[in-house]
């Protein structure tokens, strides 16, 4: 698989990474054996970047990856880990903690669950409004100095926070939602990242399955957080699935799937953008990785953007309460 560098100072990575969140219940029940098989299949196919968060399944996701790592080539892999989100025993969200002492404690538990001696990219999952970003990045920089972390990343933060963080320590990449239907980074955030030499790890490239071409309307499984997503509600969902059908016509004319068109579109936006695919089954993984072999020309791109015009999606990417907490939505 093609390799790209995450920013000017970051590591080399496969051009597509695997987002592992869905293997730990966020989209409803998952199959442990199939999750492990998917992790192995991804690495065999050339994927080197595995992305997780210490709060996915309250540690379940890290333990699952740790199990897989026992028979995978750790020295060829990049582990990208988010931290800071607080959850209670029922799985409810309690806020964020990015104090320096908490950062180091979170990492200690992550290393234990994964069974490794370092994390390749470590990043706060969101901005903690009670803690200056300089303090958080400074704490991770201490962990870099000590050898427990290789690179520092960011997640869902805006231009002011990015500048302040980069003034403390080189930042490899910003993890942020970016897709055909989530293009908010293009106005201010992406130009700044390119100015500073910071890469993009794009999650939500299929908008949580909405633009995968496989969405089946109906009752979501218990525990599937998409049941609270505005884009999956009522008339919004109907309007968004109409966009998907328009995209399907373009994709079929090109001989590719809807998902491959959407992923290839994200990859086409620049060699500094790495799409994360959230496959938790081998068949979905194979389809997604097929996007790496798709080259979209100017006519393809124009047809895709005509099918899904910028700003045409109905509904925000998160409920209002969560949108209000996103530093990235402040510019």
From TrEMBL:
> Is Cell inner membrane set as a keyword in this record?
no
Keywords for this entry? Oxidoreductase
Which sequence ranges are marked TM in the entry?
A: none
Quote the cellular component terms of the Gene Ontology held in the record: cytoplasm
- Decide whether keyword Transcription is in the record: no
Tell me, what is one Gene Ontology molecular-function annotation carried by this entry? Answer: oxidoreductase activity
**Which EC numbers does the record give?**
1.1.1.-
Where in this chain does the record put each NADP-dependent oxidoreductase domain? 15-307
Gene3D superfamilies the record matches: NADP-dependent oxidoreductase domain (3.20.20.100)
Cited InterPro entries: Aldo-Keto_reductase, NAD(P)_OxRdtase_dom_sf, NADP_OxRdtase_dom
The cross-references to PANTHER family, in alphabetical order and at most eight, read: AFLATOXIN B1 ALDEHYDE REDUCTASE (PTHR43625), ALDO-KETO REDUCTASE YAKC [NADP(+)] (PTHR43625:SF40)
What's the name of the protein? General stress protein 69
Q: What organism, scientifically named, is this protein from?
A: Methylobrevis pamukkalensis
Its gene is yhdN_3
